[in-house]
UniProtKB/TrEMBL annotation:
Residues 822-842 are annotated as: Disordered. Keywords: DNA-binding, Transcription, Transcription regulation. The lineage of its organism: Bacteria, Bacillati, Actinomycetota, Actinomycetes, Kitasatosporales. CDD domains: LuxR_C_like. The keyword DNA-binding applies. This is LuxR C-terminal-related transcriptional regulator. Residues 838-903 form the HTH luxR-type domain.
Length: 905
């Protein structure tokens, strides 16, 4: 038996035993005004199949609706409105007169004859004073007035249901029905079951509070209801899978039922319901028969053509049909609940399943037309500045030069790098072949390659684009500005600050040629360019110039489009702070980016990942080695780690420091090499490489070689210089160490990472010279500076000379609570891993956040935490996000470990 046949078979089959049995309708001895016998089936409640699902929320709404004289149940074909109303009517204790309207009822005499017979058949007959009409074409006003008066006199109101009311399109009958409804008062409750808006003046009933409406949104099945419906069909589906089916069908009752019946015949019902082809299903048969084929040819043509669109307005529909009547047609289709949904402001969309079926039907009826429709849509949308849809339809038409031109002319090429639409745009342009030969196509290809850090191919395509965009070529400024952005990125990735400077200068000139509104629409372009410029300057060791560009980028207008470049620039500024000796300030910068990144929906870690490396380096300074390793692991798979020089050098620095403090000096030397090819040597990256090589020599008993490696380290790199001074003094070269410290110069006040290590180097030199008082004073100052930042590594790295000083009461008191747990006992060796102290930034968790964190530590699932705290799962997830943000972690295990490190657990 076919699925459709089964539906009709079920409709004639047994009803739900829970539904009250409808009394047998007595024989009808009367004929209608045409002389034809009354059709008893028109007064019968439709049978509910065994798989009918009573939805109590809708039944309750219909019960409440009895407080108003008029109820409207309005939905598309197959929305379940008739069976819902019949189920409700069968459960009423008082008479419910049911009439299924037919086209012949457009004649007033026929309609009112059937209404009177419906009242009679269901036990609410009119008196003999109400004479049935004898003329099919009209009724006496006296009949209507008498009927209304009798209804008004009733102690208990009569419920009259008019099913398929959309078939009644005669204004005369509508006016008569309104007259009776108005004058019947509380004696009549009218329920209209319809696909379209009735001609009644609904606005007046709404204003008077006399109308109850149950429309498509309320008729739609919820995910939970879909699960129950499928179970009645013998199918068991998880809630999330049922939710996906509801999304695809928009909760449309017939779509769910037809899909369920077909799925029962499948070997894998769940897979079928997930992947069924709408155009090859009984859903297609239903929609084509009930909706499409009932429309005029011109309307069918319009529906087929707009099916290629996600949304459309009358003007766009006219562009596809080459006609001018779309506005009236779309408004009529929407009023008729013909699966054309109104989005507001004259925009519409097709029901998703209807759209799928129409597209398949379009390919059968008009093969080869689809690309042309996409092309027309793309050109209309571009004129109206709807860029995302322009690109989508340009790509669907395989008009790649047009799509690339639209992207570049709109200055939107930066969106390939913002982390929001970048994945979608990359995928959209991925099929673009060599047939696209415009300069814009070259730029898009180059941007795609550079976004994937494919430098060889990206640079080659960038050169091709540059040749097409020579200064004397009449190309628009937008294309040249896009080229400048890509050149700045190429300069960043190749470590070439000179090229970055030229790109920035060129961009400044080109911006003068472009309209302000276009530049304002894409603030991400300038934010990206400044970030690339700042990164190239930072690589070259031009710290103050880098800070200027990065600060400007970080101050770009807020919003989702600039979230990623602003985060990237702030993380670069954090690295600058770290390199200048301010670890606490660096950490605060990185952590401040987390909330906005979460709001913008950026992945973690996002961007280049430099922020995670800064946090890892700070964790090493605080001797939080487990946390440092976890942060390094998070960046292990980022493509930027081997292509972006600053990222590569930052990762090399953090990894090498971690290995060094763990006693793996030779491995630290190997890890210290960024392993990137750059146009210029980075002084700070080279300085750190020298430090780790020198430390390895010293650890292996070669102090002379250790000192020799440090010859290139100068006071221009303060943190490197104090580290080098510490190695010099440890190698027995106190005077060289002091000379190096004296050469340090900073633009402002030196950071604690500089002052603490410098004080300890000078203290060691003084101690070696026998000046214990000076050494004690310097260690005291170092402890005071380090305590604010919780810098433990300088003291752990200092060696045995410092232990007697720290054992004195005054210094011991300064170290208690944050430093002493990690210090070796007198005569012992430093412990590589020790309990981590609280960070500089106080982590303040709310009481509920602490409750959630404590339960995480007990290995409870999210659902178990919610149940234990008597809150929803979503509430727990919200608290978890906040805890993760405050602890700068991404996983629950890391959150527990971090909380224990910070003594929050």
């Amino acid at each position: 038996m076919s699925v459709v046949a089964e539906i009709y078979e079920n409709a004639r089959g047994p009803t739900d035993p829970a539904v009250p049995v409808v009394p047998v309708i007595p024989a009808v001895p009367f004929a209608d005004p045409r002389g034809d016998p009354f059709l008893r089936t028109r007064f019968a409640l439709p049978a509910r199949p065994a798989t009918f699902l009573r939805r109590q929320r809708l039944v309750d709404h219909l019960d409440q609706a009895r407080e108003t004289p008029l109820t409207l149940v309005n939905g598309a074909a197959g929305a379940g409105k008739t069976l819902l109303t019949a189920d409700w009517a069968a459960g009423q204790r008082q008479p419910v007169a049911w009439l299924t309207v037919e086209v012949g009822d457009r004649r007033p005499g026929v309609f009112w004859a059937y209404v009177l017979q419906a009242l009679h058949a269901w036990g609410a007959p009119a008196s003999e004073a109400v004479e049935p009409p004898s003329d099919a074409t009209g009724v006496d006003q006296r009949l209507l007035a008498t009927l209304a008066a009798e209804l008004n006199d009733r102690d208990q109101p009569v419920i009259l249901v008019l099913d398929d009311y959309d078939r009644l399109t005669t204004a005369e009958v509508t006016e008569q029905l309104e007259f009776v409804l108005h004058h019947a008062g509380r004696g009549l409750h009218l329920v209209l079951v319809t696909r379209t808006e009735p001609l009644l003046p609904l606005h007046r009933y709404r204003a008077a509070g006399e109308l109850t409406e149950i429309r498509a949104a309320e008729l739609a099945f919820t995910s939970e209801e879909a699960v129950a419906l499928l179970e009645l069909h013998g199918l068991s589906l998880p809630l999330h899978a049922a939710g996906a089916l509801v999304d695809r069908t928009r909760g449309w009752a017939a779509g769910l039922r037809l899909s369920a019946l077909a799925a029962r015949e499948s070997a894998d019902p769940e897979l079928y319901l997930k992947e069924f082809e709408a155009d090859r299903s009984t859903v297609a048969d239903f929609l084509l028969a009930e909706v499409l084929k009932g429309q005029p040819e011109e309307t069918q043509d319009l529906l087929l053509r707009v099916s290629v669109l996600e949304r459309f307005c009358p003007d766009l529909a006219n562009a596809l049909t080459l006609r001018t009547d779309a506005e009236a047609v779309l408004a009529r289709l929407h009023r008729a609940n013909a699966f054309v949904e109104h989005l507001g402001h004259s925009w519409y969309q097709l029901h998703p399943l209807f759209g799928e079926i129409l597209r398949a039907h379009l390919r059968e009826r008009m093969p080869g037309l689809e690309p042309e429709l996409h092309r027309r849509a793309a050109h209309w949308l571009r004129r109206c500045e709807f860029l995302p849809e322009t690109l989508a339809h340009g790509a669907a038409a395989s008009d790649w030069d047009f799509a690339a031109d639209a992207l570049v002319d709109d200055l939107a090429i930066g969106q390939l790098f913002t982390g929001l639409r970048s994945g979608d745009l990359t995928e959209l342009f991925s099929p673009m072949g060599p047939e696209a030969r415009s300069p814009a196509a070259d730029l898009v290809r180059a941007a795609g390659d550079l976004s994937r850090y494919d430098l060889d191919r990206g640079l080659a395509r960038l050169r091709s684009a540059e040749e097409h965009l020579a200064d004397d070529a009449p190309e628009p400024a937008a294309a040249k500005l896009s080229l400048a952005l890509l050149e700045a990125l190429a300069a960043r990735l190749t470590g070439c600050p000179a090229l970055a400077e030229r790109a920035a200068e060129k961009a400044d000139e080109l911006r003068q040629e472009l309209p302000a509104h276009l530049l304002d629409r894409h603030p991400e372009l300038n934010a990206l360019l400044l970030t690339h410029l700042g990164s190239a300057r930072l690589w070259a060791g031009r710290f103050e110039d880098a800070r200027a560009a990065l600060t400007a980028a970080a101050g770009s207008p807020g919003g989702a489009s600039t979230a990623l470049p602003r985060e990237d620039s702030i993380e670069h500024l954090a690295l600058l702070d770290y390199l200048n000796g301010w670890p606490g300030r660096a950490e605060r910068r990185v952590l401040a980016t987390v909330p906005e990144a979460e709001r913008a929906g950026l992945p973690r870690p996002s961007g280049s990942g430099i922020g995670q490396l800064v946090l890892a380096a700070v964790a090493v300074d605080r001797h939080e080695l487990g946390r440092a390793q976890a942060l390094l692991d998070e960046t292990a798979q980022l493509p930027s780690r081997t292509r972006d020089p600053v990222m590569a050098a930052g990762r090399a620095l953090a990894t090498a420091r971690l290995l060094l403090v763990r006693g793996k000096a030779r491995a630290a030397v190997e890890a210290a090499d960024p392993a990137v090819t750059a146009a210029v040597v980075s002084p700070w990256a080279a300085g750190y490489e020298a430090l780790f090589a020198s430390a390895a020599h010293l650890a292996e008993g070669r102090p002379d070689e250790a000192a020799e490696v440090l010859q290139g380290v100068t006071g221009d790199q303060p943190v490197c210089a104090v580290e080098a001074a510490a190695i010099q003094v440890a190698a027995g070269r106190a005077s060289a160490a002091i000379d190096l410290l004296d050469s340090i110069h900073t633009a402002g006040r030196p950071g604690p990472a500089v002052t603490v290590r410098a004080a300890l180097v000078r203290a060691q030199a003084a101690q070696c010279a026998g000046d214990t008082d000076t050494a004690r004073k310097l260690v005291t100052q170092a402890l005071l500076d380090a305590r604010q930042e919780r810098l433990r590594r300088p003291f752990l790295d200092a060696g045995s000379w410092i232990r007697p000083l720290l054992a004195t009461p005054a210094l011991h008191e300064l170290a208690t609570g944050w430093l002493t747990p990690g210090l070796p006992r007198h005569g012992g060796h430093p412990r590589p891993e020790s309990p981590s102290p609280p960070p500089l930034v106080e982590v303040e968790l709310s009481g509920r956040e602490r409750d959630v964190l404590e339960r995480l530590a007990r290995m409870m699932s999210t659902e178990e935490v919610a149940a234990d705290l008597y809150v929803s799962v979503n509430t727990v997830k919200t608290h978890l996000k906040s805890v993760y943000r405050k602890l700068a972690v991404n996983r629950r295990g890391d959150a527990v470990r971090r909380a224990r490190d910070l003594r929050l657990l």
